[in-house]
Amino acid sequence: TGYETLLTEQNEEDTVIETSVGELVSTGESEEVEFKSTLRVNLHTNQNDPRIELAVLKTLAGFLNTRGGRLVIGVADDGSPVGIEPDGFPDHDKLSLHLVNLVNSRMGPHAMTRLHLRFDEYEDHGVLVVEADRAVSPVFVRDGNDEHFYVRTGPATSALSGRQTQDYIKERF
Predict the structure, then answer these.
(1) How far does Cα 79 stand from its chain's mean position?
(2) Which of 56, 69, 87, 135 to pair with 107, CA 20 to 30 A apart?
């Protein structure tokens, strides 16, 4: 039946989402995989830092605007475990809610519908894996009064100029 087909498709999709953190780390950062040590805390100052949150949002927008991808929060760029504990959230729900609020307020609720969050373990540290599907419409990141458009370019996230954004949107969407 159609319902069974939906269940089967969902299960196949879940298999993709459930790639282990160890596997992601072993393959390293790429166009579709990125590591961030924290969601909001600057590890040099041990203070909440809006620039850290902005870096997370840029990466997610880059994934959404390109081919999708996975962001692992709680793993350093070199693949070493940091865990989500430095962010200081009392529980997973509060961390999730913080990220959802950030995405909704700075990228729009439509972006959140393309993101899937799951908590996992990596070398005895809790991590958050954010699976980003490919967006069906352009996603911009609000930074103060400005909005910026990001794409993944290899293992990096790049901002496009106005003209580049226009051309990219015409081609991609």
Answers:
(1) 16
(2) 87
